[in-house]
Amino acid sequence: MQLPPILTLGLAALLSSTEVLATHQIRFTSKCQRTITPKWKGNGETKPQAGLALKTGGKYTATVAEKWVAGRAWGADGSCSANDGAKCTLFECTFSNVGFNQCNISRVSGYNVPMAFAWVGEPAGCQGGKRCMSSSCPNTVAWLPPDSCNGCLSQCNTAGVDMYVTFCPK
Questions:
Q1: Are strands 142-143 and 100-106 parallel, antiparallel or unpaired?
Q2: Is residue 15 one of the residues assigned to a domain?
Q3: Alpha-carbon distances, residue 134 vs 20, 23, 70, 111, 138 (angstroms)
Q4: Burial class (CB in 10 A: 0-12, 13-18, 19+), 153
């Protein structure tokens, strides 16, 4: 059966205007000597999502939307807020435009574990990740209070790129 030309054109217009969004995976790994539970949420979400409690060497993969705006993830260990990551070392990302991604480590609200992140596969168009190993890491690797970043952002202009987040990297 052949569609009338007007329906064919209408269907083509509809399909071309439909935006297909990819997703991002955040691949958490814990190298800490204590149990860490990865948690994450995006802007406007009141309750975080949580992964499995990770012992040393444990891994968990979370999936977030391509347009994950003001997203944050943290390793909950009982020393900081499990609901919003307050007083935790934060991994923050904004994917407001498809293929334009910015992430950083933040100590603005506190510090509880060393953290590192990297783009999976280090694709072209992606800057290197960051590593904050202590509560005194500089503003070149982490966003510091009250609002200090001197090259702490890492950008990746690849749609659907995934990230590694490591708690207590060696």
A1: parallel
A2: no
A3: 40, 31, 24, 8, 9
A4: middle
**Per-residue pLDDT in tens (0 to 9) along the chain, 170 residues:** 565 555 444 444 444 334 455 788 999 999 999 999 999 998 888 899 999 999 999 999 999 887 888 899 999 999 987 788 999 999 999 887 777 788 899 999 899 999 999 988 767 678 888 999 999 999 888 988 777 888 888 888 877 788 999 999 98
Residue 77 lies in domain = 21-167
pTM, to two decimals: 0.82
Q: Where are the beta strands (DSSP E) in the chain?
A: 23-30, 37-41, 49-50, 59-65, 71-76, 90-97, 100-106, 115-119, 130-132, 142-143, 154-156, 163-167
Domains: count for the chain: 1
Q: Is residue 162 part of a domain?
A: yes
- Position 13 in a domain: no
In a domain, 16, yes or no: no
Residue position matching structure tokens 């596969």:
121
Asked if residue 104 lies in contact with residue 153, where contact means CB atoms within 8 angstroms, the answer is yes
Looking up tokens 């994917």 gives 95
Give the C-alpha separation, 22 to 25, whole Å.
Answer: 10
At 119, which CATH number?
2.60.110.10
**Peptide bond preceding 146: is omega within 30 degrees of 0, i.e. cis?**
yes
